[in-house]
């Protein structure tokens, strides 16, 4: 298409149809019309424009330089002059998510060519072509070639965008051809410019369990300078999707990668209110074939009306069909039976008298199975002496005997072993030459991590891609299981990964999928070493979809996020991961404590608090109720941290609340263990104000004032059982009774024509009403700090 001088006037679909008729008339008159021109006509009304130019005294219509494709629900538009993204249109909402006043490169990349690092962008190409894919009115092909950079003249970058495929939305692919001796280090693609502002904006990200940020535009403004938020996958990003949404429409961005290649999702602002997005890929070195690298998965960009739950449901439709879901240990019936049956976890630290005996006492009080989540059993100091775990600090024989006595009482033990840290001040670090097998950064150096704020002793992250580290860890864990009699290993930092650049390791440099492949080998080896009449349980910190086939349960502490992280206004935890994968694994854990945290007696005594495990003031009990209520309605196995028997008397009301939740959950396992998360119905309840206490092993109470936060007086979530029944979980954190009334959307929950409404609580199950095609409303009064499930079932 020739370029002429032109001026622009906005037109609608009627004018677009006129242009199409003109193009058709030219074609009938044997006047050449390119496919680019025809495709250009299919653009949305918001950016449609007609152009007139003069050539040889004759005025002719020149189609606007915007190429677009759509499927009737979504339209993607690109600038046909440079290939930058120009529109992501939710046609139903008539909302364009991309509003660039200035273009943003659709891609950038970093290469290594002739021992030099080269940063490449579309502007470096002297030739660019954009056209519809032949025979595909819903697909575009963009190609940049003839690069001006030395040694890269034969390079070509090819992008395709398609609609009408699965998963739903637009699918984006990128390939780099003619690499020759050049190597790709990083590719940023796709890049979305200037996300259009809406009222009531939110950003939802599966940061492990999930994080919802209100007013993200303000957060990314960075006090007027602009800031960046980036999350790596696999790792802190538990799933490959994010959603940025407002009152009108939601922008949905995801990947369909089933091999867990390393990548990241990032939003950034420029301080002026503009918000951009990019996906960052670290190509697996050596993956280019005949000088061509193809991104081994697709990026997904979509738009819809809804919120983070809508996004979770869209992602779930794809995710549960993927290999990690079918191979999850729960779905295959491989999780040890005692893990499924655990009604409550006790998370205690130290020697066995302070761990196992309190757990046994609590089990007697609860009347249901209690299991032990056990830190500081090991011979080394916490976050300093890893991996010198053996022998236990109280000695192997006393430890073994205590575990045997607990086992006789029906208690099961899950002991702590960090799966990626080695203390660089330990004797074994030097003696075993561990430095060679540590993760190296792009600069070739180890980057130690310091967690212990008292000793400041560094630890080095070990590379999961090395058989040395996997053998080391599996050997210690297998010995603890077989010799000491514990029932499982808690693999701290399991759901986290790093990129390693050590060329002496047996894995690709930088990005790739070797970390997950290494973890798979580690888990398989560990289970092989411990095969026998007892089956080892493996747990990991955090949650993450690629770990579903390898871990039996996942520690999800975000129910207590206020205890360890200062949240910006409008930011909160959400069960994003649970909404997708709840029945595929067991989530457990919280920091819900009624005492000051303990102190490791192997740490410097001068840093110890005056009274470790001292009871907290009752003014902090509302936060305890909040933590426990969240875990309950979000379908986690309940947990009590830092439990001491005197709490049964001194904090009886608080402990009774936790035990009641455990008993109600036990009556409703078809929902809260095996059920699928659904959106809770709208429930109008008052709010309660809670002033969070930031207090954990390393976090002491802040010296300055802490702002109170408001929470619903009754927390809720809906669950669907495998038999199709629906139940709404309710947990009150209020000091007074609360009247609760809600109506279920029959179409959304797929209710039968008629049925009964039952209340499930710790006293049993009772019918409280009925529903039919005309009405599906439940009404009840929830006593102060009580819980139940309201079940809708066929008559």
Q: Would you kindly provide a written description of the structure presented here, covering whatever features stand out?
A:
There is one protein chain. By secondary structure, the protein is an alpha+beta fold. The chain is built from 17 helices and 44 strands. The strands form nine sheets. Strands 10, 11, 12, 13, 15, 16, 18, 19, 22, 23 and 32 form an eleven-stranded antiparallel beta sheet that branches. Strands 33-31-30-29-26-25-24-34 form an eight-stranded parallel beta sheet. The protein has a six-stranded antiparallel beta sheet with strand order 9-8-14-21-20-17. A hairpin with a 3-residue loop joins strand 4 (66-70) and strand 5. Helix 10 runs parallel beside helix 11 (514-529) and helix 13 (621-633) runs parallel beside helix 15 (652-667). It is globular, with a radius of gyration of 29 Å. The protein starts with 6 loop residues before the first strand and ends with a strand. 48% of the residues are buried. The model is unreliable at 1-64 (pLDDT under 50).
Biggest pleated-sheet summary: 11 strands, antiparallel
Rg: 29 Å
**What quaternary form is this?**
single chain
Shape: globular
How many β-strand runs? 44
Q: Regions with pLDDT < 50 over 5+ consecutive residues? A: 1-64
Mean pLDDT: 90
Query: Portion of residues in helices?
Result: 10-25%
Strand content: 25-35%
Helical/strand content category:
alpha+beta
Give the count of helical stretches: 17
Straight-line distance between termini = 67 Å
């Amino acid at each position: 298409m020739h370029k002429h001088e032109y001026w622009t006037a906005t037109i609608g679909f009627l004018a677009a149809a006129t242009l199409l008729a003109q193009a058709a008339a030219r074609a009938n008159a044997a006047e050449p019309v390119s496919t680019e021109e025809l495709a250009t006509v299919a653009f949305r009304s918001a950016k449609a424009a007609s152009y007139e130019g003069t050539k040889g005294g004759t005025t002719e219509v020149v189609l606007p330089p915007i190429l677009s494709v759509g499927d009737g629900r979504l339209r993607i538009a690109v600038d046909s002059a440079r290939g930058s993204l120009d529109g992501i249109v939710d046609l139903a909402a008539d909302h364009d998510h991309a509003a660039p006043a200035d273009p943003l490169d659709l891609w950038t990349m970093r290469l290594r060519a002739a021992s030099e690092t080269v940063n490449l962008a579309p502007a470096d190409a002297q030739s660019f072509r954009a056209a519809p894919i032949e025979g595909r009115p819903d697909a575009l092909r963009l190609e940049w070639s003839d690069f001006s950079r030395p040694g890269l003249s034969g390079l070509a970058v090819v992008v395709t965008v398609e609609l009408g495929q699965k998963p739903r939305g637009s699918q984006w692919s990128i390939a780099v051809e003619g690499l020759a001796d050049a190597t790709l280090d990083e590719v940023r693609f796709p890049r979305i410019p200037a996300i259009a502002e809406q009222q009531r904006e939110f950003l939802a990200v599966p940061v492990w369990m999930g994080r919802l940020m209100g007013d993200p535009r303000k957060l990314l403004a960075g006090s007027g300078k602009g800031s960046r938020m980036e999350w790596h996958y696999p790792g802190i990003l538990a799933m490959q999707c994010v959603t940025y949404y407002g009152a009108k429409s939601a922008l949905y961005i995801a990947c369909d990668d089933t091999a867990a290649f390393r990548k990241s999702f990032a939003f950034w602002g420029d301080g002026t209110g503009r918000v951009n997005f990019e996906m960052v890929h670290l190509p697996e070195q050596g993956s280019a074939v005949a000088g061509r690298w193809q991104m081994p998965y697709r990026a997904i960009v979509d738009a819809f009306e809804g919120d983070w739950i809508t996004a979770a449901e869209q992602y779930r439709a794809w995710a549960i069909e993927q290999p990690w879901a079918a191979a999850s240990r729960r779905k295959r019936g491989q999780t040890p039976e005692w893990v499924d049956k655990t009604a409550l976890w006790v998370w205690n630290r130290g020697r066995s008298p302070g761990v196992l005996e309190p757990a046994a006492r609590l089990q007697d009080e609860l009347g249901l199975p209690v299991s032990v989540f056990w830190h500081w059993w090991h011979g080394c100091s916490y976050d300093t002496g890893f991996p010198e775990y053996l022998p236990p600090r109280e000695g192997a024989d006393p430890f073994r005997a205590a575990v045997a006595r607990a086992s006789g009482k029906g208690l099961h033990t899950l002991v702590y072993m960090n799966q990626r840290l080695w203390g660089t001040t330990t004797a074994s670090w030097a003696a075993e030459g561990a430095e060679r097998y540590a993760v190296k950064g792009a600069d070739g150096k180890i980057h130690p991590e310091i967690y212990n704020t008292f000793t400041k002793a560094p630890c080095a992250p070990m590379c999961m891609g090395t058989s040395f580290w996997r053998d080391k860890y599996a050997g210690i864990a297998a010995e603890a299981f077989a010799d000491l009699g514990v029932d499982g290993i808690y693999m701290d930092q399991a759901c986290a990964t790093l990129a390693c650049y050590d060329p002496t390791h047996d894995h690709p440099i930088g990005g790739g999928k070797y970390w997950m492949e290494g973890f798979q080998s580690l888990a398989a080896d560990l289970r092989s070493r411990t095969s026998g009449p007892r089956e080892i349980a493996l747990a990991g910190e955090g949650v993450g979809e690629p770990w579903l086939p390898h871990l039996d349960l996942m520690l999800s502490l975000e129910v207590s996020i206020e205890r360890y992280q200062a949240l910006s206004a409008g930011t909160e935890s959400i069960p994003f991961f649970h909404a997708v994968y709840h029945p595929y694994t067991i989530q457990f854990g919280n920091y819900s404590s009624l005492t000051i945290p303990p102190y490791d007696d192997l740490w410097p005594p001068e840093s110890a608090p005056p009274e470790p495990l001292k009871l907290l003031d009752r003014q902090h009990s509302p936060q305890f109720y909040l933590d426990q209520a969240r875990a309950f309605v979000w379908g986690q196995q309940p947990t009590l941290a830092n439990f001491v028997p005197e709490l049964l008397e001194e904090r009886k009301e608080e402990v009774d609340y936790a035990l009641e939740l455990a008993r109600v959950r036990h009556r409703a396992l078809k929902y809260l263990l095996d059920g699928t998360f659904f959106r809770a119905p709208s429930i109008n309840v008052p709010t309660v104000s809670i002033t969070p206490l930031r207090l954990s092993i390393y976090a002491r109470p802040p010296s300055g004032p802490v702002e109170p936060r408001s929470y619903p007086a009754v927390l809720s979530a809906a669950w669907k059982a495998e038999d199709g029944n629906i139940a709404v979980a309710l947990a009150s954190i209020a000091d007074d009774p609360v009247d609760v009334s809600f109506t279920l959307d029959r179409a959304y929950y797929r209710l039968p024509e008629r049925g009964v409404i039952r209340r499930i609580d710790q006293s049993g199950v009772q019918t409280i009403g009925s529903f039919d095609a005309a009405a599906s409303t439940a009404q009840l009064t929830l006593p102060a700090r009580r819980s139940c499930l309201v079940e809708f079932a066929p008559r």
